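Flp pilus assembly protein TadD
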Amino acid sequence: MRHSIILTLCTATIMLSACAKSGEEQVQEAMSDINVIDESNLNEVMLTVGDPEEAVRYFANAVENHPERVDLQRGLAASLIRAGRVPDGIAAWETVISHPEATSEDTVELAGALIRASRWDDAAAQLNTVPPTYETFKRYRFEAMVADSRQQWEKADSFYETAAGLTTRPASVYNNWGYSKLTRGDYRGAERLFTDALRHDPRLFTAKNNLVLARGAQRKYTLPVVQMTQVERAQLLYTLALAAIKQNDISTGKTLLADAIETHPRHFEEAVRALQAIENNAVN
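Predicted structure tokens:
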């Protein structure tokens, strides 16, 4: 009987111990899941709103501790590009695409990094390795930029059109496409595309400035009807003035410079210097 009681107690103790261990393991697993979620959130923050150099340090340290993880290698490569360290970013993306878990998206990112370095042929070579079935906004945008660099205008137009159809925010595509038309001398086509860009993103100042350049090249020396701040209005008048002067419409250019100076809420040094230079040349 005594042995039976002892055996029962031992069995109960073993079962309690097993239950306690199981509970501890469950807690550890739950905490591990939370840590993974927290790390994923932190990685996302570092890739978007974090300081670029701080993000580089974060991912460099993470890669050193976990060199086998391709997601951390991607984070490092993307952070280096954000920080303006393009050669280092290219090297990092090359490391990523050599990883067994690399994807077509990684190759596209490498192509984008190469474009930033104006290594157009290398970028084209990378894009050529991407399967034609991999169709994304970024891939076609880069294809369009490469075609532009080679003055393959029909290809560029086709790629820009495809890219614009693959995103809900095509303003930057229309802006790039418009600039391509601007460099070709198709000013009316460029004006239309810059207008499209601003229809999708009325705050995009580069598109506003490019639109003014396209209009100025056609000797349309009035500002377009677009959303603009007072500072932006002054800057756009300055751009339009330079376009007029470039086409030897000096009197119009002077008037536009004076308007820019008067419009700007603060001292507009660049416009003042340009107006003084014109007046000095006229005197001499």
